[in-house]
Amino acid sequence: MAEAPSSPLPCLIVGLGNPGDKYAGTRHNIGFEVVDRLSKLWAVSLKQERRFQAEYGTGFGPSREKVYLLKPLTYMNRSGQSIRAAMDWLKLSPAQVLVVYDDMDLPVGRLRLRLSGSAGGHNGMKSAIAHLGTQDFPRLRVGIGAATRAGESDKGVVSHVLGNFSKVERATMDAVVDTSLRALEKALTDGVEKAMSLYNPLDLSDGS
To answer: Is 122 a catalytic residue?
Structure first.
């Protein structure tokens, strides 16, 4: 008999990004991209939901468990407002919320699942932590590579995260997004810890 996961299984998957065509496909919107792909994979229709200030959908995940998908439309630095509204309406605990977002501290080709942690300088996660009142909720960090060399300005960081992937990076990111979907399905069915053990070691930049 399989061991039960030590934490509640996540059921609300939140992708962070910025709304609008000008941000579509940018590094900072990889969370949106993952949720869009999940909506297709699970046939969960996303529609604008005013009470959450988000695109939102509900349906069934890989094992026919109830799942909720959320893309905040508040812009990145106010993402927490939307997450909190959905969490309260659905009567979920923070441990049942899994946030997907871009991370400059990870190279392209890597992803990292964690059960908790700091914002690491990410404005969307700063907002999420502030509104949820805790760092203890799972997240999937998707590597987008470092923006700057030592001495470059904050402007370089903004240009990087709001820029598009190169052709080479995009090919790797397609594999990363596919792998992210599998990792999230594993987290929803067998727990985040199990998914961490399987997917955190992978380096997709070398085709593994």
So the answer is: no
